[in-house]
NAD-dependent protein deacylase (Sphingomonas sabuli), 230 residues
Amino acid sequence: MASDIRNIVILTGAGISAESGVATFRGPDGLWEGHRVEDVATPEAFVRDPALVHKFYDARRSALAAVEPNAAHRALARLDAEWPGELLLVTQNVDDLHERAGSKRLIHMHGELKSGWCLRCNQRSAWNGAMGQGAECPACGTTGLVRPDIVWFGEIPYRMDEIESALQACDLFVSIGTSGAVYPAAGFVQTAHYCGAQTLEMNLDPSLGSYLFDEARVGPAGKLVPAWVE
Ligand code: BV8
C-alpha cells in the first residue's frame, strides 16, 4: 500500500459474504421466495404483513449458524488489528461475519440480523433465535412490539455522522462486493474522492459506480482482498 496512506475507509456489501454462502440481493438469486428485497425491507411491508417480514429475517438469521467468515473477512480483520493509522470498516451487510472474523473498527450502517429493536422502550437487544410476532423485549418485557433492527428502505442508515467524518478524512476509500445500487452507501466514493482520497473497487463484476473509482479490480473478494491486504 502506498506510503502516503494513513487513514482508510472500507465499504463492504453482500458480495464479500457470497463466498461464505450468504445470498446476495441482486444476483441471479436476488429474490427471496419471489419477493424483491425492496418489497420486504420497508416499514410499510412490516405494517402490511409483519409475519412475512419476520419470516424473511428469521430465515436469514437462522442461516447465519451454517456459514463462516471467508478469506476476505479474515484479511480485513488482520488489517484492522495491524493497521497503525485510522481504519473504519463500514458494512451494508446485516450478517455477523466481519465481527466473527475479528474486525473491531466496524459500523453496520444497515443494522444487524442479530439485534432486536423494541418499539415500546426503544431498546435494542442481542437476538439469536426467531423473532416472530410474539417476541418479548428482554429490556421491558413487552411482547409483540419487537422489530428487526434493520435499516429498511426509506429509513436513515446508522451512524452517518461518523461515516461522513471518516470519509472526509480518509486517504484511501476501498469498496468491496457491492453493486452500488443503494444510497447513501453508493455515494461514499464521491465524498472520498472530492476530499482527496484515492479510491479502489474490488468486485466480481464492475459495479454501477465503477467509473467513479481511480482503480477497479474485478474478481472474487476471497482472492482479491487477501492479495490487497498483503
Ligand atoms: C435513505 C437492509 C435517507 C435490508 C438495506 C432513487 C434514487 C436514489 C436513491 C433512492 C431513490 N429512491 C429511494 C432512494 C433511497 C434508497 C435507495 O438507495 N434505493 C435504491 C433501491 C435506489 N435508500 C434508502 O432508502 C436508504 N435510506 O436514503 O435515507 C437519508 C440518507 C442519508 C442521510 C439521511 C437520510 C436506506 C437503504 C438501506 C436499505 N436496506 N439492507 C436487508 O439487508 O434486509 S439495502 C440492501 O442493499 C442490503 O443492505 C445490501 O447490502 C444493499 C446493497 O446491496 P449490495 O450489498 O451491493 O448487494 P447486491 O446483491 O446489490 O450486490 C452484490 C455485489 O457483489 C454485486 O455487484 C456482485 O457482482 C458482487 N459479488 C458477488 N459475489 C462476489 C461479489 N464481489 C466480490 N466477490 C464475490 N464473490
